[in-house]
């Protein structure tokens, strides 16, 4: 397949040969000022999630159409075979081969179309057959991939799709190791796509084929360059016109341009670049106003005087500018925006990695309830639904590849890792939420030649593919502050666990940050990870630091830690972003700590999404504009010591409390913490009630504690 020039070459006009861009013919503003637009949709997408059969074993001959799979387990995708054993502790979950098969009758009306089989995510190696014909192999467990199946998947006939999946450790594919369970399976959606023989390219690293580059974005105007990659599979030369239309949410056209006609030979492609200006744009302004336009590209076949719309792709467009200053932090559309958010994994209880769109939506509902305005999508490419939700909710995203812990010094590992980065960028280039491309996390051999050679190449890929976004890297907390990222990326994240794995929660984080900023004032630095474990069933009054690997992780220590950490971080505007580790508890089968084996319990919310830990409400009181009034230690319902304290998180100015109907008085606070110390519980049930007025409305919270 033809190797297209980099986006930098296209945007600079240095692409040559048959791929040279075409000048656009913009319509006059009067022509579309009051015009509304609804994009045609000649493409067909068919969901293939239902009706699979699965066996967790390697089976000879399973790719052949006549193979008897009647004894296999019926499953639907998304599916993983490690939903249970991947979170039971012991680090002995199944890592091997699984097979999936399904029959599918392609609708006869799709005859003559170009057909593509799409997998949104398979971990980690996938070999795919259709009707016994081998389509190919995809390596890497987190990115989308497609295989052309025209002529192999037969419309009107019974077809057999067979997929062999391997999640065994492979030192030539990143990640080789990481602090989470590597669940196997077809754990994201499967679909069939039917497009015209003259179409926007489907196999450009499984990207959309339409790339929206924005420049000179301001309240006055914004320039958008639309790069369209098209392909001609018709069998003859076609005369092609590309029309690009940008419309606002109401459908009103704000930009419309048509290219001049270009001859595109059979079995060849073209890359067409069109530039438009949008006057007085409504900017994508983060959580305050995550406004999205729709950018549609139509492929017109105008051969022999005809004008047929062969293909259309619509991508959402959020117009924004973002910059990071080493002294004062992040700026969105020219206004300062302190980024505060969380790290997100794709895993949850019962389902493991096989999460649905509804699950993704629930996660982002909780993230927005928390008041976060940023998400680090650790430690790999996430499902497209996550990036779409971030676009819609106005969350700034740090996206990254799964280069974690270690590097294998091999040509295969380098090629695979570079490919995963290109897939990440091409597939997600148009998401306005993504501002940072991460090239790795906590590589232990920070001085190694192979490590730094690979990181340098990855930084170079970002510079070539997408020079307008910022490259970043997360340095391990135990490593020197100048390790790796200072050499390669434009910004640096630090994973610091003062008050957990080392040091004190009270002051060490701030002292470290001040020292680094003083010695390296030009470094643009973020707190990419900080956090501690917490069990919702373990409690103590003002506990000291627990043993991280021990069985005692009281919820109250997590609260004390985050109170101290956020106060230190909030006071230092040169830290451009902060990301709590983590938003949700998640499976890490090698762990055995706290109250549950196989779980990393540093989440602000439990793995089943049912319990918001106390620390969740600490951040909600500080970050969210919605009223917050929360009594902490509420799950510590059975008490043995009558002496205790009442602590409340709230964004109220003043909170009033009662114990068993007797007033404890009212307190004011400037730091969102209201604490009544030295209270005494009575034998039996004790009811604590707090009341506050927030934004003119009265709110109440209460708990019952029983003293035995």
Structure report:
- Strand 21 and strand 22 (329-332) form a beta hairpin.
- The protein is 16% helix and 36% strand.
- It is built from ten helices and 41 strands.
- It is α+β, with helices and mostly antiparallel strands and 708 residues long.
- The strands form nine sheets. An eight-stranded parallel beta barrel has the order 24-25-26-27-28-29-30-31. Strands 1, 15, 16, 17, 19 and 20 form a six-stranded antiparallel beta sheet that branches.
- Helix 9 (555-570) runs parallel beside helix 10 (614-623).
- Mean pLDDT is 94; it is low at 1-32.
List low-confidence stretches: 1-32
- Overall pLDDT: 94
- Class by SSE composition: alpha+beta
What is the 3D shape? globular
**Helical proportion?**
10-25%
Count of DSSP strands: 41
Termini separation comes to 74 Å
The number of helices is: 10
Please state the CA-atom Rg, rounded to the nearest Å.
27 Å
| β-sheet strand percentage | 35-45%
Main sheet attributes: strand count, strand direction, barrel closure: 8 strands, parallel, barrel
With strands numbered from the N-terminus, the spatial order across the biggest sheet is 24-25-26-27-28-29-30-31
Question: What's a concise summary of this model?
Answer:
This protein has 708 residues and is an alpha+beta fold.
List the helices and strands and how they pair.
Elements: H1 7-12, E1 24-26, H2 29-32, E2 44-47, E3 52-55, E4 73-75, E5 97-105, E6 114-119, E7 125-130, E8 133-139, E9 145-148, E10 158-166, E11 190-195, E12 198-200, E13 210-215, E14 221-232, E15 238-247, E16 253-259, E17 262-264, E18 268-279, E19 293-301, E20 308-317, E21 322-325, E22 329-332, E23 335-336, E24 339-344, H3 357-370, E25 374-377, H4 384-393, E26 396-400, H5 411-428, E27 434-441, H6 449-465, E28 470-476, H7 485-488, E29 492-495, H8 508-519, E30 525-530, H9 555-570, E31 575-580, E32 586-593, E33 596-600, H10 614-623, E34 629-631, E35 638-639, E36 643-650, E37 654-659, E38 662-668, E39 673-680, E40 684-694, E41 697-707
Parallel strand pairs: 24-25, 24-31, 25-26, 26-27, 27-28, 28-29, 29-30, 30-31, 35-41
Antiparallel strand pairs: 1-16, 2-11, 3-4, 3-5, 5-10, 6-9, 6-11, 7-8, 7-10, 12-14, 13-14, 14-18, 15-16, 15-17, 15-19, 19-20, 21-22, 22-23, 32-33, 34-36, 36-39, 37-38, 37-40, 40-41
């Amino acid at each position: 397949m033809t190797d297209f020039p980099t986006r930098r070459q296209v945007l600079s006009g240095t692409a040559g040969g048959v791929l040279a861009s075409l000048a656009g013919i913009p319509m006059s503003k009067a022509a579309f000022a009051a015009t509304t637009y609804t994009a045609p949709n000649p493409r067909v997408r068919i969901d293939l999630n239902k009706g699979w059969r699965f066996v967790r074993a390697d089976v000879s001959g399973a790719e052949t159409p006549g193979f008897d799979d009647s004894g296999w387990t019926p499953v639907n995708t998304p599916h993983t075979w490690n939903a249970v054993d991947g979170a039971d502790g012991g680090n002995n979950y199944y890592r091997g081969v699984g097979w999936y098969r399904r029959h599918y009758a392609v609708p006869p009306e799709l005859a003559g179309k170009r057909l593509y089989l799409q997998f949104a995510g398979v971990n980690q190696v996938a070999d795919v057959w259709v009707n016994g014909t081998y389509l190919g192999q995809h390596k890497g467990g987190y990115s989308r991939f497609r295989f052309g199946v025209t002529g192999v998947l037969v419309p009107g006939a019974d077809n057999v799709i067979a997929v062999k999946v391997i999640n065994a450790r492979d030192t030539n594919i990143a990640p080789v190791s990481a602090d989470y369970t590597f669940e196997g399976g077809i754990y994201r959606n499967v679909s069939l796509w039917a497009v015209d023989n003259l179409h926007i390219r489907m196999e450009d690293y499984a990207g959309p084929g339409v790339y929206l580059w924005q420049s000179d974005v301001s309240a006055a105007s914004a320039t958008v360059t639309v790069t369209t990659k098209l392909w001609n599979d018709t069998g003859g030369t076609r005369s092609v016109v590309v029309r690009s239309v940008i419309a606002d949410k109401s459908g009103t056209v704000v930009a419309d341009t048509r290219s001049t006609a270009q001859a595109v030979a059979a079995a060849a492609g073209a890359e067409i670049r069109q530039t438009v200006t949008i006057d007085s744009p409504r900017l994508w302004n983060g959580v305050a106003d995550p406004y999205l336009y729709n950018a549609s590209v139509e492929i017109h076949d105008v051969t022999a005087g005809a004008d047929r719309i062969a293909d259309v792709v619509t991508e959402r467009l959020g117009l924004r500018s973002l910059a990071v200053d080493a002294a004062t932090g992040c700026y969105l559309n020219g206004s300062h925006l302190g980024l505060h958010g969380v790290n997100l994994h794709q895993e949850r209880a019962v389902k493991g990695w096989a999460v649905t769109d509804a699950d993704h939506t629930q996660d982002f509902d909780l993230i927005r309830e928390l008041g976060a305005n940023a998400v680090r999508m650790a430690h790999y490419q996430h499902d497209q639904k996550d990036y779409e939700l971030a676009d819609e909710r106005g969350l700034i995203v740090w996206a990254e590849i799964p280069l974690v812990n270690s590097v294998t010094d091999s040509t295969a590992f380098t090629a695979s890792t570079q490919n995963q980065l290109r897939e990440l960028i091409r597939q997600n280039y148009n998401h306005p939420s993504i501002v940072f491309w991460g090239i790795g996390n906590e590589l232990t051999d920070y001085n190694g030649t192979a490590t730094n050679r690979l990181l340098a190449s990855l930084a170079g890929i970002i510079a070539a593919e997408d020079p307008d976004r910022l490259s970043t890297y997360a340095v391990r907390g135990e490593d020197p502050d100048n390790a790796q990222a200072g050499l390669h990326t434009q910004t640096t994240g630090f994973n610091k666990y003062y008050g957990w794995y080392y040091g004190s929660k009270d002051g060490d984080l701030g002292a470290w940050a001040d020292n680094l900023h003083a010695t390296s004032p030009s470094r643009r630095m973020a707190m990419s990870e900080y956090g501690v474990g917490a069990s919702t069933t373990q409690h103590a009054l003002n506990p000291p630091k627990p043993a991280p690997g021990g069985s005692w992780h009281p919820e109250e220590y997590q609260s004390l830690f985050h109170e101290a950490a956020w106060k230190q971080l909030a006071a230092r505007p040169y830290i451009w972003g902060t990301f709590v580790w983590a938003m949700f508890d998640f499976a890490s089968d090698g762990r055995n700590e706290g109250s549950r084996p196989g779980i990393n319990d540093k989440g602000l919310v439990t793995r089943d999404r049912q319990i918001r830990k106390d620390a969740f409400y600490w951040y909600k009181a500080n970050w969210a504009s919605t009223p917050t009034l929360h009594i902490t230690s509420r799950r510590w319902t059975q008490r043995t010591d009558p002496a205790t304290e009442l602590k409340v998180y709230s964004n109220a100015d003043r909170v009033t409390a009662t114990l068993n109907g007797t007033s404890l008085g009212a307190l004011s606070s400037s730091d969102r913490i209201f604490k009544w110390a030295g209270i005494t519980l009575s034998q039996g049930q004790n009811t604590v009630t707090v009341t506050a007025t927030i934004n003119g409305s009265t709110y109440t919270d209460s708990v019952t504690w029983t003293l035995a």
